[in-house]
Design a protein that fits this description.
Blueprint (H helix, E strand, L loop, with lengths): L18 E12 L2 E7 L13 E6 L5 E5 L10 E6 L7 H6 L6 E4 L3 E2 L10 E6 L3 H14 L3 E7 L8 H6 L1 H4 L2 E5 L3 H12 L7 E5 L2 H15 L4 E4 L14 E5 L4 E4 L5 H7 L17 E6 L2 E2 L7 H6 L2 E3 L4 E2 L3 E5 L2
Parallel strand pairs: 8-9, 8-11, 9-10, 11-12, 13-19
Antiparallel strand pairs: 1-2, 1-6, 2-5, 3-4, 3-6, 3-7, 13-14, 15-17, 15-19, 16-18
This protein binds FE2/S2 (inorganic) cluster.
The site of FE2/S2 (inorganic) cluster has 14 residues, from loops.
Length: 333
């Protein structure tokens, strides 16, 4: 065991990895979405965190999942997550839906893939379904900072629209938020085109929702704001064709070298050789395992790095991404 210590990616606040917290309140936002408020048993503060952050949550069945923090980032007494009951879940969301107030669960440090960009002339938040959660914390922060922002929130129907009352009635949101329910695909495109019409090259778009939806958002807003001003957060792993995968070499900045077979990930090979790599989802979503690339050309297969980060080629997710060059030199961060 090399016992290499890593610092958490973008960690902020006073939660430490593996903290026990108590479920202090539960609210049924919709028939399938529960809001859980989490607090420290000793009443000590948990925040603040950066808007758009997510945390690892380990429920009573031991299944670890990532959930976006959806409360005001400056609020320090509790952290809020919204859990959608997934019919095809492997038990993670179902277990969290069985929790009662007073139960104890384990959480990790807040980490950011999404974060508010400074200097934009307008911030456009575009959510679909449970994708509202990271964008809600960003809306709180944008309001606090006095930034110009809008939030367009698309849902299948009103009954399944989480936070509808809050968004429609709170003074900080009601003039900036548009709820869209029951739209056809064509009508969704019209909404997105109307948002794009209000933006400039200096505007920034943040979107979260199903992969297909975010693809439509990208298609419509990228010609206006450019690739680097579109920021996405995925809940799903990218679909990957592994049929042409080949072996390559990974060298760490320490000089240690490892052969990565065609059917193994960099992460799994490093772990088998006793290298301590920070990880969570192992699906290329959470950003925990992202490390620096010092030499070589990564083949990105994650859904956590931005288009700009991938184009720069100096970071990669070790759990899913591979190499276009025979060798990569990596610095674990
Ligand atoms: S462990 Fe989550 S992106 Fe690699």
């Amino acid at each position: 065991m090399l016992g290499r210590q890593r610092r958490p990616l973008h960690a902020l606040g006073v939660v430490v990895s593996g903290s026990k917290v108590v479920v202090s309140a539960i609210v049924s936002e919709t028939p399938s979405i529960r809001l859980l408020r989490l607090a420290r048993e000793d009443g000590a503060p948990l925040g603040p965190y950066r808007a758009g952050a997510h945390i690892d949550v380990t429920g009573p069945t031991g299944i670890l999942r990532q959930y976006s923090l959806c409360g005001p980032p400056a609020e320090t007494a509790t952290l809020a997550i919204a859990v959608k009951l997934e019919p095809e879940s492997r038990g993670g969301s179902a277990a969290l839906h069985r929790l009662c107030e007073g139960d104890i669960i384990e959480i990790g440090e807040p980490r950011n893939i999404l974060g508010i960009v400074s200097g934009a002339d307008r911030h456009a938040l575009i959510a679909a379904g449970i994708g509202i959660t990271p964008l809600l914390s960003m809306a709180y922060e944008l309001y606090s900072s006095g930034a110009d922002f809008t939030l367009d929130y698309i849902c299948r129907d009103r009954v399944e629209t989480a936070f509808a009352d809050l968004l429609e009635n709170r003074a900080e949101f009601r003039d900036r938020v548009r709820l869209h329910t029951g739209l056809s695909r064509d009508e969704q495109r019209e909404v997105l085109e109307s948002v794009a019409a209000t933006l400039t090259r200096d505007s920034v778009v943040y979107t979260c929702g199903p992969t297909g939806f975010m693809g439509t958002v990208a298609e419509i807003v990228t010609p206006v704001v450019g690739e680097t001003n579109l920021h996405t957060e995925y809940f799903e792993a990218a679909e990957i064709d592994i049929s042409g995968d080949t072996a390559f070499t990974v060298e760490l900045d320490t000089g240690e070298s490892f052969e990565i077979p065609a059917d193994r990930s960099i992460l799994s090979v490093l772990e088998d050789n006793g290298v301590d790599v920070f990880k969570s989802c192992e699906e290329g979503i959470c950003g925990s395992c992202v490390s620096n690339v010092l030499e070589g050309e990564p083949e990105h297969r994650d859904n956590c790095l931005s288009v700009a980060d991938k184009a720069a080629g100096n970071q990669m997710a070790l759990c899913v991404s591979r190499s276009k060059s025979p060798k990569l030199v990596i610095e674990l961060i």
